[in-house]
Amino acid sequence: MNNKKVLKPRIPDNLSAFELQEKYMLDEDLFSEQVLSHCNIENCETQRNCFKQVIFDSVVFKNASMQYSEFTDVRFENCDLSNVDFRESSMCRVEFVNCKLVGINLSESVFRDISFDKCNGSYAFFRFTDFKQAVFQNCQLSFSDFQETRFSKIQFKNTDMRQCHLFGTNLSGVDLSECNIEGLGIRLEDIKGVIVNSMQALLLSSLMGIIIK
């Protein structure tokens, strides 16, 4: 499968530093050209925030909900976003590097040019999300939910996808050959055209009612 390279965030040098705290965040706040580093965001519940050309460095989110938000040219690095609620958000040219994303809720979001590198996204929710030009690399995605998700030009590289739920997600042209897909939850009609290695083909053969002796 030929994938174009995922575009990186367009972030200028010499961003201004700002220690973001929940008391500074209101609905529809705009944050632009800033570095947010080494701080905690606790008990934050806002909507429709807009982040443009922002770096989150070593930020810990606790009991945070920022639904319907927009992230453009944003990098999350060494952050803990476990159980954060980002439902129905929009992300364009966004990257997550070495982040903890356990249980994060990104359902019903729209992703364009997004990358996840060395992230732990176990039990993450991507249900009904629209991915276009995306990559998961060296990630942990076991028990994550990708049901009814749209994939266009997506790459999975050396990623643990054990027990992932992909019911209703069309995997035609998606290359899973470098991933652990043991216990993958998928329907027969969804795996047509998926790219797997020979051992993975044996795992998926049960969906077709094939008995291998």
Task: Indicate the topology.
Blueprint: E1 16-17, E2 30-37, E3 40-42, E4 45-47, E5 50-57, E6 60-62, E7 65-67, E8 70-77, E9 90-97, E10 110-117, E11 130-137, E12 150-157, H1 198-204
**Secondary-structure element sequence?**
EEEEEEEEEEEEH
Sheet with most strands:
8 strands, parallel
Low-confidence stretches are none
- Percent helix, as a range, is under 10%
Q: How are strands sequenced across the largest beta sheet?
A: 1-2-5-8-9-10-11-12
Q: Which structural class is indicated by helix and strand composition?
A: mainly beta
Per DSSP E runs of 2 or more residues, the count of β-strands stands at 12
**Shape descriptor:** elongated
Can you give keywords for this protein?
two-stranded parallel ribbon, 12 strands, elongated, mainly beta, 3% helix, 1 helix, single chain, eight-stranded parallel beta sheet, 213 residues
Structural features, described:
The model has no long low-confidence stretch (mean pLDDT 91). By secondary structure, the protein is mostly beta strands. The protein has one helix and twelve strands. 3% of the residues lie in helices and 33% in strands. An eight-stranded parallel sheet has the order 1-2-5-8-9-10-11-12, with no helix packed on it. A two-stranded parallel sheet has the order 3-6. Strands 4-7 form a two-stranded parallel sheet.
Entry summary:
With 213 residues, the chain is mainly beta.
